[in-house]
Recover the amino acids of this structure.
């Protein structure tokens, strides 16, 4: 445990701004795994955790190394400290993402607010019981930008690559911007953690094999706006 805490402390010193803290922190209980994804269920690992990692759990905010105001949102256990299962309206996590006061809303300026779709995912996950769950089936044959790629980018990348000061001066908020890095090879290079590329999501776990396969399928098809 001391080793893991030391790693997290060193990481918090090395990485600032939107660079995410290390997630080598207390390990949560293994998630509940469904072999098939129920379209009516919001899954913590698949749907909610990427949003929070990208938009909340970074250095200087609510990552493991900084834990601003004592709030660490890098693990399921930490997130559940801010959640009242089955009651989004009584959950601090939900309250701050729908806050209308720019001084209190999360994520804070200059980062972009969560989208309506992201807020709804978090709300529904809480109201469904806020389980530590995931699903493992993967469809790589019906991949579209609108239904597959855009949500992946939105939930895993836009926390840093959006707003008035996007990390690396790279914004990924629309099809044209995503297609540019798809066509020049940077998208696949970064998500595959290939040599010569900065691994993305930065200082976070690599995207799941399913998400990488879906993005690869879309890029190999010519990165269509479909």
């Amino acid at each position: 445990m001391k080793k893991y805490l030391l790693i997290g402390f060193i990481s918090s010193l090395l990485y600032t701004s939107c660079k995410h803290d290390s997630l080598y922190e207390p390990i949560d209980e293994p998630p509940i795994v469904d072999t098939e994804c129920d379209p009516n269920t919001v899954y913590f690992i698949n749907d909610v955790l990427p949003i929070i990692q990208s938009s909340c759990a970074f250095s200087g905010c609510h990552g493991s190394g900084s834990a601003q105001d004592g709030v660490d949102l890098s693990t399921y256990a930490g997130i559940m400290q801010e959640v009242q299962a089955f009651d989004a309206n009584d959950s601090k996590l939900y309250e701050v993402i729908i806050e209308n006061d720019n001084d209190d809303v999360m994520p804070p300026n200059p980062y972009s607010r969560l989208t309506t779709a992201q807020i709804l995912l978090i709300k529904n996950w809480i109201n469904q019981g806020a389980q530590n769950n995931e699903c493992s089936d993967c469809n790589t044959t019906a991949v579209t930008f609108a239904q597959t790629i855009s949500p992946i980018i939105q939930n895993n990348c836009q926390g840093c690559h959006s707003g008035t000061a996007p990390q690396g001066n790279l914004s990924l908020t629309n099809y044209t911007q995503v297609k540019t890095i798809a066509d020049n090879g940077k998208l696949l290079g970064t998500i595959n953690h290939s040599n010569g590329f900065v691994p993305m999501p930065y200082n976070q776990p690599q995207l799941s094999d399913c998400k990488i396969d879906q993005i690869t399928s879309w890029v190999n098809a010519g990165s269509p706006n479909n």
About this structure: Residues 145-220 form one domain. The CA atoms of residues 42 and 121 lie 7 Å apart.
